[in-house]
Structures are given as structure tokens and as C-alpha cells.
Specification:
The protein has about 260 residues and is of the alpha+beta class. The chain has five helices and eleven strands, in the order E-H-H-H-E-E-H-E-E-E-E-E-E-E-H-E. The N terminus is likely disordered.
Length: about 260
Amino acid sequence: MGRRWRDPPAEGRPHSRRATPTALSSLLVPGPLDLSELVASPAAPALLSLEETLPPSAHARPAAHPYTPIARAQRWDIRLARTLLAERTDLPDLDTGESSSTGYGVSADFWRVQIIWIQNGSLTLPRAGTAARRRWDAALDAIEVALGSGEFTALARNRYCVSAAAVVPDEPQCTARLSRVGPLGAFRSEVTFDGYAAQTASGALVLASHGASPTSTLIVTDAAGAEVGRGCDSHQHAIESLAHHYGLPMPLALIDEGRRQ
């Protein structure tokens, strides 16, 4: 999941202190003012803006981004698994259309990736000791090795498939900006992603109920107005759903820009 970034603590702020008669009288005693002490005093540290607290990877990316988002795209970890399997094995990917009966299929298993092996158009496990079974087991071996080189973790295997979870980077790979728009009672927000044109990857969040309440949820739509999902219980959850809809990399940093002026 993506992380929520917060403003840094206000370090260096002076604490208020009730003035005493002694302290006040000392201020009124005439005497020479030594300006050198004021000049030599270190300046209070300036508070950083929210964007200055984010790591460099969370800021706007170059316009020429290597990935072009599309609606209803494959999730980033599914694309990663497909890339690794294509580079590290000679097994056919059934979704490419190169083979109609034998190959692997990649799908989401909640927040994991699952690779299923299909042989001669069947999911039936061949009998032990046969050439068909040896080909079956060799294919699963190759899939497991391809995913077990560091990009995925928590590998699990049974007789029919291999599943794993992609290693999520520590720093944000994508930055979303949230802006409140429209009348106050509309409870509507717009979302854009740094480095991507609004017409390519953006969306809107609208409160599902007529008013805010502890049980309120959000409806998410994409740049074309198509519904992405509903029932999201927070802005972070809703925006992550929108990012997955476009296949954007994770994790995600969220900058809340408040109400648009």
C-alpha cells in the first residue's frame, strides 16, 4: 500500500511562557544594546512544505515516462511477472496468442500474483512418471526460478501453479494530488498523477452518501467518467484503486492540496 505523508513536526518553535514581574522589569532596565548577539544568534529552522518532505522519487517525473497508462490496465506486479517470465524462460504466455493450448496464465490472487500452467489445453495434472508430467513439473520449476531472483518474495507452489508477492519499493514510485472542487455540499475531489497528463491518468472521488458520516464511502471514476469502484473507506484507498486501474507503479504518495482556489 501506498503511504500517507504528513507535515514534519514544528521543531524550533518558541514555547509560550507567562511573563513574571522580574522578567518584565529586566526588559525595562536601560542599558546599551549589543546587536552582535542578535546577529550571531542562529536563525530558527524554517518549516518545510509537505512536498519538501517527500523523497526525490515522489516528485514529478519526466514527461517521457516509460509506461503509458491505460484504463483497466494490468496491475504493475502482474506486468512485472510477465516481463520476468518472458526474459528468463522460453515458456509461452497464453495471453500473447502465440500458443492456444500450452503455456502459462498470469492473474491477481488478491495482492499476490498467480501463474497457472496449462498443458494441451488442460489443467489436469498428468500421471506421475510420464513424459507429460516431466514437462509439467519442469515448467513450474522454470516459473519458480524466474520469480525467485529478488523481485518477488513469499513464493508458494502447488501441483498446478506458483504464486508470489512482488517486493514493494521503500520509496514512492507514483505521486497523486487530491484537490477539492465544486460546491462544499458536493463532496467532490479531483485526482491527478505527477508525470502523467490528466487525459491519460486522472479521476474523481465523490461521496456515496448525501452527507459526511463515519460510515461514508467514496465512488471512484476515471478520466473518461467510467466508474472504477465504490465502497472505498478513505481517500488513500480510493486513489490507490484509481492508480491500479491505470496500472501505475506502487507504492503511492498522496499530496492533499485542499480546496482549489
